[in-house]
Amino acid sequence: MLGLLVSELVKMVEVRHGAVMADVLMFATDVPARDAAQPLDGYPAEQLEVLIDALARRTGEAPRPLVRSFASRLVRRIQHVHPTIYQRHSDLLEPLLLPAEDLSLAPVRPASDLARREIEILFGDRREVQRLVDGLQQDIARYAPQCPAGAGRHAIVSDPPKRKFRQIPT
């Protein structure tokens, strides 16, 4: 599940802030390694918390709207890729949706069979959907409604690489 969550977060960052910001977020943020005892499909995930906090610091956006937007994008992805799974669990997923006009969405591509299968494996069981929704709601609640950027529990410990430019005589 963590792979799907991180990839959706990266897509959101690319659409809202560009590919460079997504690269900086992924490669210049000290994301904790997964504990061997932690299940691979666990949520909420500390790694996602670190990325959201780093994104808020780097962009100056408040973290709560970032998490809300991320949750809504994730639900819309489930809705697009596997409408049957979405309909089966819509009572749990719909409260996370934001109005479509409030989201910056990339152009919608047809869903692949692999993507459909991934959604079916991850969210076919209602308990898994409930765990995802509970985790996202905990992440949203973790930030006060007017929480300033960078007010999360995690700090950025590395900066983006510095580029050196040489002057060319004119």
Strand percentage lies at under 5%
Give me the Rg, rounded: 17 Å
Distance between the termini: 54 Å
Low-pLDDT windows of residues:
154-160
Q: What is the element string, with H for helices and E for strands?
A: HHHHHHHH
Largest sheet: none
General description of the model:
This protein has 170 residues and is an all-alpha fold. The protein has 8 helices and no strands. Helix 1 packs across helix 4 and helix 4 (63-81) packs antiparallel against helix 8. The longest helix has 19 residues, at 63-81. The chain is globular.
List keywords for this structure.
mainly alpha, 170 residues
Layout of helices and strands, plus pairs?
Elements: H1 2-17, H2 19-27, H3 46-59, H4 63-81, H5 83-88, H6 90-93, H7 113-123, H8 126-142
Helix pairs in contact: 1-2, 1-4, 4-8
Please summarize what this structure is.
This protein has 170 residues and is an all-alpha fold.
